[in-house]
């Protein structure tokens, strides 16, 4: 394998051909969980040789966002594998930040396909400052034939209104499995309302906390009183 300080042109071309990549992050706590997520669809872009980003669609968890928003964290690794042609494994190491859907700029949005930007499930863009790039042989990675992208997620969210999506994200995306606050606490429909966790058989789901003092507008607050700042035009996790 080889190591680089930035993404070389040859690997940039390799990235363009891939149909799937994997995202790894971890809680800073020694007892916290490590998360690995697969990502499909045309959601990844190289902004320059040391900056990349991917558009994040809603799902039943928000571990990556919780880890990137954690104070002093931001560590993230992106991995691509060659499932056809010459063997190759590519890893991009960096520091990531969450740019919420409502905080994105026109320039950032222009880097992604229009159908992804307009998808009701679009919840954030993860922007990564890359400080290390490495390749490894990939000799044991099996061959797979790409058939097509799954459209189940897009079809499901296409039926939803923004308020429905915001309610879903408050419930499913407000806390990580370790109880760390995540992006579900920053939904426009519920701006300024405190969110509290409740146990859901191995998960920490969120709900509006009635009777509790609401945080200042533009902020989200977790149940233990920590305040996560998010002002319009800024990125959570910086």
TrEMBL record:
Q: Where is the Pyridoxamine 5'-phosphate oxidase N-terminal domain?
A: 9-136
Q: Where is this region: Disordered?
A: 207-238
This chain belongs to the protein called Pyridoxamine 5'-phosphate oxidase N-terminal domain-containing protein
Q: Which SUPFAM superfamilies match?
A: FMN-binding split barrel
Q: Which Gene3D superfamilies match?
A: Electron Transport, Fmn-binding Protein, Chain A
InterPro entries for the chain: Pyridox_Oxase_N (IPR011576), Split_barrel_FMN-bd (IPR012349)
Pfam family of the protein (one):
PNPOx_N
């Amino acid at each position: 394998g080889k190591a680089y300080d930035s993404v070389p042109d040859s690997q940039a071309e390799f990235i363009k051909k891939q149909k799937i990549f994997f995202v790894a992050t971890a809680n800073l706590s020694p007892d916290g969980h490590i998360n690995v997520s697969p990502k499909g669809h045309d959601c990844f872009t190289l902004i320059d040789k040391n900056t990349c980003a991917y558009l994040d669609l809603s799902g039943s968890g928000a571990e990556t966002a919780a880890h990137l928003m954690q104070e002093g964290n931001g560590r993230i690794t992106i991995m691509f594998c060659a499932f056809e042609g010459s063997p190759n494994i590519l890893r991009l190491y960096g520091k990531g930040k969450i740019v919420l859907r409502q905080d994105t700029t026109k320039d950032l949005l222009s880097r992604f396909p229009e159908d992804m930007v307009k998808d009701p499930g679009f919840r954030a863009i993860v922007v990564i400052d890359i400080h290390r790039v490495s390749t490894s042989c990939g000799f044991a990675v099996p061959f797979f034939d790409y058939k097509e992208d799954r459209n189940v997620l897009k079809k499901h969210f296409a039926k939803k209104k923004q308020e429905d999506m915001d309610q879903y994200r408050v419930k499913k995306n407000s806390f990580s499995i370790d109880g760390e606050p995540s992006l579900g606490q920053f939904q426009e429909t519920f701006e300024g309302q405190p969110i509290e966790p409740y146990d859901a058989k191995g998960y920490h789901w969120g709900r509006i906390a009635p009777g509790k003092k609401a945080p200042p507008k533009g902020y989200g607050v977790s149940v233990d009183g920590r305040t996560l700042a998010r002002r319009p035009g800024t990125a959570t996790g910086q």
